[in-house]
Amino acid sequence: MKLNILGCYAATPRSLNNPTAQVLEIKNHLFLIDCGEGTQVQLRKSKVRFSRINHIFISHLHGDHFFGLPGLVSTFRLLGRKTPLHVYGPKGIKEAITLLLKLGDSWTNYPLLFHELTSSESELVFEDNTVTVSTIPLQHRVYTNGFLFKEKPGQRQLNVAAAEKYSIDRCYYQNIKNGRDIRLEDNRLIANAELTFDPPKPKSYAFCSDTAYTTSIVPLIKDVDVLYHEATFLETEKDLAPKTKHATAKEAASIAKAANVGQLILGHFSTRYKSIELFKEEAQTIFSNVALADDGKEFQL
């Protein structure tokens, strides 16, 4: 998996800071997660191929998380897109986007498919042969979801030396990789575990922005490889967090520790602070493996 941070700052765009948007590359998918203002410019700077984006996940309908979507939808049209574009987001997102298209008499020349979300419980919203995407209900001032991306287990890997040891014909190799045991001509049954190696451990990524501190998400993100969690404030401004339904760096770290995640990436920083390093320092008092998001930064997960 690879994560490309296009923007990770709170509220309004600034000359050097962009609002939330990121691209997750997983199992040959390019998933766009949130689409703040300026996202398509950031996509170009990061040399992301627009044609590979077929699924967009919007956490909530605050402008710094979706105001870039109308422009991106329109650019796809100007580029002559033909393949379907799927947009997953809160109820109301279809009305917001299609109204702009209607008023500008600029309907897309490709299928634009909205999947509007209303459930307060976690639900599966996307699945194919390799990946699942589920919602993570969050606590914010409006209906908001995070998203959990999980690889499906791959095929077992053939131990060619073991197969040759038992003189197993190559025509059975696919069955072996599919997990089947093999019966030899002398009637011996060779267990699949003797003929294969375990596949690589499936990876997982949880995106949680924006949200107040809530332990309700812990069971949903338990043991994920990487957690992106908002950290709008430091503890010095922790009184603002419950009022605005945001979290502090220390609270994000507490969630990461409780969920036993592999790595915590902090983002959605308030621009009131002179250095984002302060967020890392604060979080590491609770959880050691902390990284900071920043515009244009890439993570190999």
| Number of separate helices | 10
Task: Sketch the topology as an H/E string, one letter per element.
Answer: EEEHEHHEHEEEEEHHEEHEEEHHEHEE
Overall morphology: globular
Rounded mean pLDDT is 96
Return Rg in Å: 22 Å
Give the strand tally: 18
Strand order of the largest sheet: 6-5-4-3-2-1-18
Terminal CA distance: 5 Å
Uncertain runs: none
- Helical residue percent? 10-25%
Q: Determine the structural class based on helices, strands and strand pairing.
A: alpha/beta
Strand content: 25-35%
Question: Mind describing the biggest β-sheet?
Answer: 7 strands, mixed
What keyword list fits this structure?
seven-stranded mixed beta sheet, 301 residues, single chain, alpha/beta
